[in-house]
Specification:
A 6-stranded parallel sheet has the order 2-3-4-5-6-7. A two-stranded parallel ribbon has the order 1-8. It is α/β, with parallel strands linked by helices. Helix 3 links the parallel strand 2 and strand 3. It is built from 9 helices and 8 strands. It has one domain: TIM Barrel, CATH 3.20.20. It binds pyridoxal-5'-phosphate. Pyridoxal-5'-phosphate binds next to strand 8 and helix 9. The site of pyridoxal-5'-phosphate has 15 residues, from strand 8 and helix 9.
């Protein structure tokens, strides 16, 4: 069903800052309009697409205004930052989603505050999370991160390793598998970006046929500020949008992704 010519631009316009509640309301409205238009192009119901605002690097005072404008679910890449924010903003109604790579020794932190973890790609982490969640009497929605771009240093499982990995997860009763997450290739080439999203969707569709019990609702978390419209055309059910809502970040993306350093160091 993809709208699949490559006329959909990869947005690279600069992202204006947002500080006030009104700024956030305007940015959210603009992003929702683009989500709706992309869904329409693909013959999809925009209601199938969840918008997950990503608040990494954004100070707490500004997050308060974003929450006032209607953001009640927030994505964060780094556990320490997310934990601190969850504590300092505990008076607000926010569900926290951890969307970045997790080291086993941080599982205990995630277990206390997060409601969702989108970057599961190791059994060690699954085990550590399950143990901590049991202790805390909590459960966690998880998405399995898949490397769809074949970049060696990017996190996530190779698509061919995913079925065997999923078969291990029912052993962890506190983890509720919801589907998959991916980061597309970082390139201006829309065709290459689209190809990554197609891989994730193909994997989900294949597992829906062979092992539907292992993937829950089969969510596809794919698409960020620069490529969420393409992702929606390719079937995304969750777009993780930071800069288009909060404004451009100062930190380079290499701070969040292991592009410039060995995997495991982040
Ligand atoms: C930062 C981040 C995003 C959002 O990126 P933007 O360019 O700010 O939209 C999405 N997914 C992950 C895993 C991230 O770390």
């Amino acid at each position: 069903m993809s709208a699949a010519d490559d006329s959909t631009p990869i947005t690279s316009l600069e992202y204006p800052p947002a500080t006030t509640k009104e700024d956030f309301a305007a940015h959210l409205r603009a992003v929702r309009e683009k989500i709706a238009a992309a869904a329409e192009r693909a013959g999809r119901d925009p209601g199938e697409v969840r918008l997950l605002p990503v608040s990494k690097t954004v100070p707490e005072e500004r997050i308060r205004n974003a929450v006032a404008a209607g953001c009640h679910q927030l994505g964060e890449n780094k556990v320490q930052e997310a934990k601190r924010k969850s504590e300092n903003l505990a008076d607000l109604d926010i569900a926290w989603s951890v969307i970045g790579h997790l080291q086993t020794n941080k599982a205990k932190d995630v277990a206390v505050f997060a409601s969702e973890f989108q970057a599961l790609d190791s059994l060690h982490v699954a085990e550590a999370l399950d143990r901590r969640l049991q202790a805390a009497g909590r459960s966690l929605d998880v998405l399995v991160q898949v490397n769809t771009s074949h970049e060696e240093q990017k996190y996530g499982l190779a698509p061919s390793d995913v079925p065997a990995f999923l078969k291990q997860l029912p052993a962890f009763e506190t983890l509720h598998v919801k589907g998959f997450m991916t980061l597309a290739l970082f390139t201006e080439d829309t065709g290459k970006v689209r190809a990554c999203f197609k891989v994730l969707r193909g994997l989900r569709d294949q597992l829906r046929d062979t092992d539907p019990d292992l993937i829950g609702p089969g969510e596809l978390s794919m698409g960020m500020s620069g490529d969420y419209e393409v992702a929606i055309e390719e079937g995304s059910t969750c777009v993780r949008v930071g800069q288009a809502i909060f404004g451009a970040r100062n930190l380079p993306d290499s701070y969040y992704w292991p592009a410039d350093r060995p995997a495991g160091e982040a």
